[in-house]
Write a structure and sequence with these properties.
The complex is a heterotrimer of chains A (531), B (338) and C (222).
Chain A (H helix, E strand, L loop, with lengths): L15 H5 L4 H29 L10 H37 L7 H20 L16 H4 L4 H28 L12 H33 L12 H35 L6 H15 L14 H28 L9 H24 L1 H7 L3 H31 L5 H28 L13 H31 L45
Chain B lengths: L1 H8 L7 H34 L15 H30 L6 E8 L2 E5 L6 E3 L1 E5 L4 E7 L4 E5 L4 E5 L5 E5 L5 E7 L11 E7 L1 H8 L14 H15 L5 H11 L25 E3 L5 E3 L2 H9 L22 H13 L2
Parallel strand pairs in B: 1-5, 4-10
Antiparallel strand pairs in B: 1-2, 2-3, 5-8, 6-7, 6-9, 9-10, 11-12
Helix pairs in contact in B: 2-3, 6-8
Chain C lengths: L24 H36 L1 H7 L5 H27 L2 H32 L17 H34 L9 H25 L3
The chains are: A mainly alpha (531), B alpha+beta (338), C mainly alpha (222).
The complex binds heme-A (2 copies), dinuclear copper ion and copper (II) ion (CU).
One heme-A sits at the interface of chains A and B.
């Protein structure tokens, strides 16, 4: 993988076992990266099949039962196995301790355990694929999830186990950030990526246990018929929704916040300007994390919950848009009077800004009570969450992946193919998902295997877009793979960044730093340079 | 060309007063979003290009600006409060039915909607007849799993939850057929669980109550000319007066049979009609029967009497929901599927 | 941020239990303690889900709770409460002894703690088998004629989920205590390093605390 002569974490020890049993946060990060990207490919293939089926109003390539399994796998894999672990598990694990100036995370063994717990969860969840599948949607709403004769229980077990991985990663990160900062690395000098991961970790630690108990109850519901969520036995299906969203709404910020962190790193580096409003960006993450816990009911406006609950949840949901807006405006303002360069990380960061803004603004439509009554459970919602998750988080992941690629692999990726892939993804994304806003507003429901003929054209445009997207992603995979093997050797600090990971060699040595670094300045101290 | 087709695809109609109010709020949100989109993305493109590396602008060390930050905290806060209040006010109107609303009971089950009219005691499937300009309240319950009742033209929707009653209400002011979807995932045929609200003029509604049939009501929002053109198109395709079998085919679509039965041999929830008539059917208990007319009739009116091998006893009974003449048409259709 | 001991790590005071990424034993101990507290927070939230379920259903059907709880044996529950509180005390003594370096004493207290935990489980076993016998089971499995309220099975769903999850924690706790006994016998702990003992102690007190809430909620419904 690397030929550089100095001793680094990649050539520190050899053999497959030295990887699988490693306690080095960098290697664990890479293992997360490869595993999550593999599942991204799997989830993406399901997505392409979904889109292909929707190319015509009736049956195109599969029957309804198969289709229902497709979107369940697609959603569950993308959420539980890709987007929640991807940024913290891969980039967070690799970069965050180095940014702090630490040698490792606080509990390296626990870190390795988290990875293997995640793999175990993934094995359980995907084993359902080879049995009777699961056809509940990623939301597992009762009582359907109790009645269906598909193998839901395996997916539930998988998500349950993967949840513990998420909890332990969060716990590990919080302790690391508190206890392992290098001399001089004060709170007010922490890079914003670290701040974002910190806020994320809090949400992971506080929300995920509730998912665990919810899934456990649902498993018992199927195994023993305990009846808590089953109306036939006196239980309450709406209670299940409350439990589920109490986790899953905060979870959308587990998905979003780490991406915000990456953008906060990339934009100043490529603008040669200090980040605009450092404190506001750092604190707004906590504002978002806090509010995230009290808005879950916005997924349930038409579920039969009380009018008062709807009133409160709608009002609180509006509040989330304020701290998010602060971040968005600050990122844009950072470029003012800078010297903006357009290497791939910056392109993806700008792409993120475009797509996330659309996703966020349409989130406000959904937060508005009366408006959501019409839009909920239509393709408008599907478009909203793909704009924030794919257009937001996946774009941020790509920004981070390119940004730290030289650090992780010790090699440079090629700029031109990266730009081409970027345009494929940006255009392909909008072509795929923008029509879905119109479809949703026109009333096309989600989780529909077939649709009325008047929706055909827009669906075909969307399917066409998904092919452009696929080309973009596959192209990235190809050139990154090639670059990893024989790209030009990277210097320690190719982007002239100020955070600590750029102050050590590429790839970093086993212990991260030859000598414990001492931090003497703010990481965004980009003084005016000669033009 | 694209726009023309997109316009043809435009099937959403504002079919009630509330739908018009909803559209107003929607338009407000769309324009507000366009404004913020231009502000953010336009600003981003402008700044990125203006201050690109190598441009003649002098870079400057800036770490923030409190006035600006206060501004972009305060303005969105105010706007969001306005949006919230507007949304909540309209929502209040959407969920509180006037006390004089006509009530119809709805029972949802996998995968059809059944409507019961308290005053006449009539029952219909997947079609609910209502008068225009009169508030109608649907009180809904479910026999099995979650479903949801969504009428895009009226911008209303509510989940249907087993074990409790939920409701939607509307006052149609556009006559014609209004599409209804099930929008809570409910299993295999979720995407075929659809219905129609058929809004009739008060006189027609009275006539319907008295037993008159309204088979080809145009879609809401279509002009008479459009409806006739569409009807002509269909007539052209069929190019013959509707045979009994064709009527039966239309009925199996309207009554929701299509959610579970196909005519092409593919197995959905229930067996396909293909090659059914006159052939031997193996039952769950291992015995065999020949699918004659009486068997088909029994299968529809009392489906659990004989369960086909390999299937679950989930088909609801249609006794009393299908008239004798309709049954004849359906049987003719099933016989015709060879 | 304490970096005052930064150069200790290479000095002669290097403790064998000190990991390479910590500066000194105190930092490492603090980090471990902090991690354990966070873990206990997640446990609180996990049980919290069940408590919320309890509150919801008790709010909906108070008369049912009043009727169904009567079949639970208050003496047995009370006995178990005393057993667990005592075990918390012996655990505490075990930890302080370990902290003072009194190894044999510490091990003895830990054994007593395990014994008390076992007592708890034995009592629970008798309670459970009585319920099984009477058909006082969760949800669909419920078959008892004496309790008339139609929603009563829900009470037993909650009862078995909550006490079951708690019982599982007791078993895990016993394994953990056994594990620190083994390590203690291998002389791995000292007044400088007894982190695992202290953390298992935290965990055990938490398990007891959950029971302190479960007992009145389940057995003593007014
Ligand atoms: C990365 C994940 C992510 C993120 C960040 C968000 C962000 C937001 N989401 Fe989204 N959401 C999902 C993932 C996410 N969502 C998913 C997965 C679902 C569906 C789950 C399912 O059912 O399967 C969903 C569904 C969903 C619903 C339920 C819809 C329904 O089912 O009926 C609602 C309703 O309120 C909602 C609202 C919001 C809001 C208000 C935000 C806000 O945080 C957005 C804030 C951002 C902005 C507003 C843009 C920037 C701000 C400005 C430029 C300032 C000025 C703006 C104004 C004055 C308006 N989301
Ligand atoms: C992170 C989350 C995530 C991501 C990334 C995606 C990605 C995509 N999604 Fe998905 N989607 C969900 C989360 C996500 N989705 C969820 C939660 C649901 C709801 C499920 C439910 O209702 O229960 C859903 C539902 C959903 C539907 C609605 C189905 C229905 O309601 O009936 C559709 C339809 O178009 C769709 C399409 C797509 C498409 C075309 C992509 C494309 O963007 C995919 C493109 C990706 C690829 C083609 C893979 C290429 C990858 C590689 C080559 C690997 C290597 C990569 C690198 C090195 C970068 N998705
Ligand atoms: Cu009924 Cu979906
Ligand atoms: Cu949400």
């Amino acid at each position: 993988m690397t030929t550089s002569s100095h001793s680094n974490y990649l050539n520190h020890s050899k053999g497959l076992w030295s990887w699988l049993s490693t306690l080095d946060h960098k290697r664990i990060g890479l293992m997360y990266l490869f595993t999550t990207l593999t599942f991204f490919l799997v989830g993406g293939i399901f997505a392409l099949l979904i889109r292909l089926e929707l190319f015509t109003p009736g049956q195109t390539i599969m029957d309804p039962n198969t289709y229902n399994r497709m979107f369940t796998y697609h959603g569950a894999i993308m959420v539980f196995l890709v987007i929640i672990p991807a940024i913290p598990g891969a980039l967070g694990n690799f970069i965050m301790p180095i940014m702090l100036g630490a040698k490792d995370v606080a509990f390296p063994r626990l870190n390795l355990a988290s990875y293997w717990i995640y793999v175990a969860g993934a094995v359980f969840a995907t084993s359902a694929l080879f049995l009777k599948g699961a056809d509940t949607g990623w939301t597992f709403y009762t009582p359907y999830s109790i009645r269906t004769n598909s193998t839901v229980i395996l997916v539930l077990t998988g998500a349950f186990i993967a949840g513990f991985s998420s909890i332990l990663t969060g716990l590990n990160f919080i302790v690391t950030i508190h206890k392992l900062r290098a001399p001089g690395q004060s709170w007010s000098r922490l890079p914003l990526f670290v701040w974002a991961l910190y806020a994320t970790s809090i949400v992971q630690v506080l929300a995920t246990p509730v998912l665990a108990i919810t899934l456990l109850l649902l498993m018992m519901e199927r195994l023993l018929g305990i009846g808590i969520f089953d109306p036939k036995l006196g239980g309450d299906p709406v209670l299940f929704q409350h439990f589920f969203w109490f986790y899953s709404h905060p979870a959308v910020y587990i998905m979003a916040l780490p991406g915000f962190g990456i953008i906060s790193e990339v934009i100043p580096v490529f603008s040669r300007k200090p980040i605009f409003g450092y404190k506001a960006i750092a604190y707004s993450s906590f504002g978002i994390a806090l509010i995230a816990f009290i808005v879950w009911g916005h997924h349930m406006y038409v579920s039969g919950q009380s009018e008062l609950a709807n009133f409160v949840f709608s009002l609180l949901t509006m509040a989330v848009a304020v701290p998010t807006g602060i971040k968005v405006f600050s990122w844009v303002a950072t470029m003012y009077r800078g010297q903006v360069r357009f290497e791939a990380p910056m392109l993806y960061a700008l792409g993120f800004l475009e797509l996330f803004t659309v996703g966020g603004l349409t989130g406000v439509f959904l937060a508005t009570l009366a408006v959501d009554v019409h839009l909920t459970a239509t393709y408008f919602v599907v478009a909203h969450f793909h704009y924030v998750m794919v257009g937001g988080t996946i774009m941020a992941l790509l920004a981070g992946l390119h940004y730290w690629f030289p650090k992780m692999s010790g090699r440079m990726y090629p700029e031109k193919p990266a730009a081409i892939a970027f345009w494929f993804i940006l255009v392909g994304f909008n072509v795929t998902f923008f029509p879905q806003f119109i479809l949703g507003a026109q009333g096309m429901p989600r989780r529909y295997w077939g649709y009325l003929p008047e929706f055909t054209l827009l669906n075909q445009i969307s399917t066409f877009g998904s092919w452009l997207l696929a080309v973009g992603f596959v192209y990235i995979a190809i050139y990154l793979w090639k670059a990893m093997r024989n790209g030009p050797v990277a210097t320690a600090n190719p982007w002239s960044g100020l955070t600590l990971e750029w102050q050590t060699s590429s790839p970093p040595p086993h212990d991260n730093f030859a000598n414990t670094p001492v931090v003497t300045q703010w990481p965004y101290e980009y003084r005016v340079e000669k033009a | 060309m694209f726009f023309k087709e997109a316009h043809a695809a435009e099937m959403l109609v504002a079919g009630s007063e509330i739908a018009h109010s909803w559209d107003l709020l929607w338009n407000f949100l769309v324009w507000l979003s366009v404004f913020f989109f231009i502000l953010v993305v336009g600003g981003m493109v402008y700044l990125a290009i203006t201050y690109r590396a190598g441009s003649k602008h002098k870079p400057k060390y800036i770490t923030g600006n409190h006035a600006l930050e206060a501004l972009w905290t305060a303005i969105p806060t105010i706007l969001l409060l306005i949006i919230f209040a507007w949304g909540y006010a309209l929502y209040g109107k959407m969920i509180h039915a006037p006390s004089d609303a006509m009530e119809v009971r709805v029972v949802a089950k996998q995968w059809l909607f059944q409507f019961q009219y308290p005053d006449t005691g009539r029952t219909t499937i997947n079609e609910v007849y209502v008068p225009v300009n009169k508030p109608v309240k649907l009180v809904m319950s479910s026999e099995d799993v979650l479903h949801s009742f969504f009428i895009p033209n009226f911008r209303v929707k509510s989940d249907i939850v087993p074990g409790m009653y939920t409701s939607v209400w509307f006052e149609a002011n556009v006559p014609g057929k209004h599409q209804v979807y099930c929008t809570e995932y409910c299993g295999t045929s979720h995407s075929q669980m659809m219905a129609q609200v058929i809004a009739l003029s008060p006189e027609d509604f009275e006539a319907w109550k008295a037993g008159k049939k309204f088979d080809s009501v145009p879609r809401a929002g279509q002009t008479l000319a459009e409806a006739q053109a569409e009807a002509a198109k269909i007539a052209l395709k069929q190019s013959a007066p509707m045979s009994l079998a064709d009527q039966g085919k239309a009925l199996t679509e309207a009554k929701g049979c299509i959610a579970c039965h196909s005519a092409d041999g593919s197995v959905k929830v229930g067996p396909s009609y293909k090659g059914l008539f006159g052939h031997e059917v193996e039952l769950a208990d291992g015995s065999k029967v020949t699918a004659d007319e009486n068997y088909l009739r029994e299968s529809i009116e009392n489906p659990n009497a004989k369960i086909v091998k390999g299937f679950q006893p989930v088909m609801p009974t249609f006794k009393g929901l299908i008239t004798e003449t309709e049954l004849n048409a359906i049987l003719a259709y099933i016989k015709s599927v060879k | 941020m304490s970096n005052s001991h930064a150069d200790n790590s290479h000095g002669h005071g290097h403790h064998p239990a000190l990991a390479h990424h910590f500066n000194n034993m105190e930092d490492q101990f603090e980090a471990a303690k902090f991690g354990m507290w966070l873990f206990l927070v997640t446990e609180v939230l996990m049980f919290g889900g069940l408590f919320i379920g309890y509150i919801v259903f008790r709010g909906l059907y108070p008369e049912m709770f009043a009727e169904a709880h009567k079949v639970l044996s208050v003496p047995m529950g009370a006995l178990n409460t005393i057993v667990l509180i005592t075990s918390s005390l012996t655990m505490l003594l075990g930890v302080t002894s370990a902290q003072r370096g009194e190894r044999t004493k510490s091990v003895r207290f830990l054994w007593v703690t395990i014994l008390l935990a076992a007592c708890f489980l034995v009592v629970k076993y008798f309670e459970y088998s009585h319920k099984f016998h009477e058909g006082l089971l969760p949800g669909a499995l419920f078959h008892n004629e004496h309790i008339t309220h139609p929603k009563a099975p829900l009470f037993f769903s909650l009862y078995f989920m909550m006490t079951g999850l708690h019982g599982f924690h007791v078993v895990v706790g016993m394994c953990l205590i056994f594990w620190i006994i083994r390590r203690s016998k291998r002389n791995e702990f000292s007044p400088e390093f007894y982190t695992p003992v202290e953390l298992v102690g935290f965990y055990w007190h938490f398990v007891d605390l959950v029971w302190i809430y479960l007992f009145p909620l389940m057995y003593l419904v007014p």
